């Protein structure tokens, strides 16, 4: 930016002959040529799908009979349906618990794993592995670990302390908690890395000042470290909440919404409506609502952040 | 006590045996919880599992049978499909993003802000939400009337529209000194040569970030490939895991062997490019 502004000063010769390329470099269509592939792809695969989701959400979509405008019917149907209300509640519950759990565990991990030693950096890398393992693998792995009989891996573990056997993902009472635990296992190391980056940015002089003032470790943590991480908290919250709202893969592979609809979330419901029942209009209305929720959340949190900064 | 190495908890090198023991236990616990399940996956992939409900933590009867069965089930073909999608998808994504970033970072033109904001806005558009309309569009591309459903191309082409890479690349390209470009221009270099030979080589760190992130994102993709693949001939490896599991004659050991093949590429990429990864993670997230 500054370089651009300085340029007239640099070339401050009185020579009035126009340069071969106009001031900012190149003919008018040059930037558009560079942008063209991106514009075409974004149009085809982002903007048109979004537009068509919006349009379909107001239509009764019938592939061979022609679509009919039905106004807000799809939305009314979606909002009134027990299935969607339940799925929305499950989605919020899942997103909230996973976000809170991952952030809390991630913060604890970051505080414990902060440091320069080789051992710590090895443990940090190892603990981060779940984040880079594809979700499909995570789900298959946890499916086996969650095996509902007494000799299943996690059941034998909790058996050691006299608990279980639990049905985990096969029991409507524990299925949601099980999906949440799997999500936290994969989410916490991610949050840990971000918190570690945040911790590195906390002013060291403040630590020293606090120590000089005779503050205990706990007080220092509460009054110096945590306030220093405030922006990290809000960023992580937005990222995780958005990720949580659109959750699909792990639920689809672990439970596919079952048992008895106890883990049905908005995305698994939409996929069922759209793909299995071919009710594209209603499915689109659900997707648009999910998008609006995401948008609302992002806007609210960024307004809160801005207000805090001022 | 040097302030620079001070940590938030102020944990110093413990001198007491008790303090060391507590630390050791905590570190072991973290390893067991987060790396343990992956170790169980690894061991089970190479172990003959007699009990279909169990993962093995200790290799009791080592074997390569799981991989032989997995290969019989077509896992190599799925792996090849995955590599094909990630290879061409990433190439397309990086080329399209760097070209667009060059225009956005180095040029001024009407509607530039509008274009930039429109692209950034898609960051808030989760691909899961777009999945169904996107699959409809892929079945009959507007104007072109091509059906990409059931083809690997249908999984690859949409990957070109990836706002995160454009954002990272544009931010980075803005900081490349203008003098370099001016000098090349005076030497008569054309626009594309300036892009490819002056600007891009300066952007290696950013290329590392978008490459690593693009790879892991594409490798992890599930819903879109699921909607595009019409039958197993176009399955990627993550999609095939579910089919393998449902197959009654396939044991968990085989599923774990296939899972190992599915996780190795992204884990290897992470371990090799850890610095790019962590850098992109923290800068991307903290800049917000």
From TrEMBL, chain A:
Residues that span the membrane, as ranges: 28-47, 87-113, 125-145, 176-200, 221-242, 282-304
Annotated compartments: Cell membrane
GO terms under cellular component: plasma membrane
Major site of localization recorded for this protein: membrane
Claim: Transmembrane is one of the keywords in the record: yes
Gene3D superfamilies found in the cross-reference section: MetI-like
Residues covered by the ABC transmembrane type-1 domain: 88-301
A single BP term in Gene Ontology: transmembrane transport
Membrane topology: Multi-pass membrane protein
PANTHER family found in the cross-reference section: ABC TRANSPORTER PERMEASE PROTEIN (PTHR30193), INNER MEMBRANE ABC TRANSPORTER PERMEASE PROTEIN YCJO (PTHR30193:SF37)
Similarity remark: Belongs to the binding-protein-dependent transport system permease family.
Record-given protein name: Multiple sugar transport system permease protein
Organism: Nonomuraea dietziae
Automatic annotation (TrEMBL), chain B:
Pfam families: BPD_transp_1 (PF00528)
Keyword Calcium set for record: no
Alphabetical UniProt keywords: Cell membrane, Membrane, Sugar transport, Transmembrane, Transmembrane helix, Transport
Subcellular location: Cell membrane
Transmembrane segments: 21-46, 83-104, 111-138, 144-168, 206-229, 249-273
Gene Ontology cellular component annotations, sorted alphabetically: plasma membrane
InterPro entries the record matches: MetI-like, MetI-like_sf
Residues of the ABC transmembrane type-1 domain: 79-273
Topology with respect to the bilayer: Multi-pass membrane protein
PROSITE patterns: ABC_TM1
An example Gene Ontology biological process: transmembrane transport
UniProt cross-references to CDD domains, sorted A to Z: TM_PBP2
The family this protein is said to belong to: Belongs to the binding-protein-dependent transport system permease family.
Protein name: Multiple sugar transport system permease protein
Organism annotation: Nonomuraea dietziae
């Amino acid at each position: 930016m500054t370089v651009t502004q300085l340029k007239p000063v640099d070339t401050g010769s009185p020579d009035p002959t126009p340069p071969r390329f106009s001031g900012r470099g190149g003919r008018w269509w040059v930037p558009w040529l560079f942008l063209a592939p991106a514009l075409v792809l974004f149009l085809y695969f982002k903007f048109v799908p979004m537009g068509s989701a919006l349009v379909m959400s107001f239509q009764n979509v019938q592939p061979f009979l022609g679509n009919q405008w039905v106004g807000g019917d799809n939305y009314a149907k979606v909002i009134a349906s027990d299935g969607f209300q339940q799925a929305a509640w499950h989605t919020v519950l899942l997103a909230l618990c996973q976000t809170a759990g991952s952030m809390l565990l991630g913060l604890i991990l970051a505080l414990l794993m902060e440091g320069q030693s080789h051992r710590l950096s090895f443990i940090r890398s190892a603990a981060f592995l779940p984040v880079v393992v594809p979700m499909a693998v995570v789900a298959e792995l946890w499916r086996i670990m969650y095996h509902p009989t007494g000799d299943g891996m996690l059941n034998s573990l909790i058996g050691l302390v006299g608990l279980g056997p639990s049905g985990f993902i096969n029991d409507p009472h524990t299925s949601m908690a099980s999906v949440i635990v799997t999500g936290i296992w994969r989410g916490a190391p991610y949050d840990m890395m971000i918190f570690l980056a945040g911790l590195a940015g906390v002013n060291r002089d403040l630590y020293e000042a606090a120590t000089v003032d005779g503050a205990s470790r706990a007080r220092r943590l509460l009054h110096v470290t945590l306030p220093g991480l405030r922006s990290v908290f809000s960023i992580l919250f937005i990222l995780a909440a958005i990720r949580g709202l659109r959750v699909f893969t792990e639920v689809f592979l672990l439970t596919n919404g079952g048992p008895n609809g106890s883990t049905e979330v908005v995305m698994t419901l939409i996929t069922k409506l759209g793909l299995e029942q071919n009710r594209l209009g209603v499915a689109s209305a659900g997707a648009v609502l999910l998008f609006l929720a995401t948008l609302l959340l992002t806007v609210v949190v960024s307004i809160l952040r801005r207000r805090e900064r001022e | 006590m040097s302030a620079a190495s001070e940590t938030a908890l102020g944990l110093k090198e413990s001198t007491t045996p008790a303090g060391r023991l507590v630390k050791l236990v905590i570190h072991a616990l973290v390893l067991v919880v987060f790396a343990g399940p992956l170790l169980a996956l690894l061991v089970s992939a190479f172990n003959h599992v007699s009990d279909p409900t169990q993962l093995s933590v200790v290799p009791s009867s080592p074997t390569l049978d799981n991989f032989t069965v997995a290969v019989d089930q077509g896992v190599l073909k799925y792996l090849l499909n995955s590599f094909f999608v990630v290879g061409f998808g990433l190439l397309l994504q990086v080329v399209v993003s760097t070209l667009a970033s060059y225009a956005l970072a180095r040029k001024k033109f009407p509607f530039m802000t509008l274009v930039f904001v429109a692209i950034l806005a898609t960051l808030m558009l989760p691909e899961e939400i777009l999945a169904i309309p996107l699959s409809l569009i892929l079945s009959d591309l507007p104007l072109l009337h091509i059906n990409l459903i059931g083809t690997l191309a249908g999984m690859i082409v949409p990957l070109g529209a990836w706002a995160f890479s454009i954002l990272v690349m544009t931010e980075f390209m803005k900081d490349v000194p203008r003098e370099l470009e001016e000098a090349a221009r005076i030497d008569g270099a054309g626009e594309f040569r300036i892009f490819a030979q002056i600007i891009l080589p300066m952007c290696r760190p950013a290329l590392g970030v978008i490459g690593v992130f693009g790879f892991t994102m594409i490798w992890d993709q599930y819903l879109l490939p699921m909607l595009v693949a019409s039958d197993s001939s176009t399955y990627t490896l993550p999609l095939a895991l579910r089919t393998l599991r449902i197959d009654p004659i396939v044991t968990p050991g085989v599923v774990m062997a296939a899972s190992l093949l599915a996780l190795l590429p992204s884990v290897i990429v992470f371990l090799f490019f850890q610095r790019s990864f962590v850098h992109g993670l923290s800068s991307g997230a903290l800049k917000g």
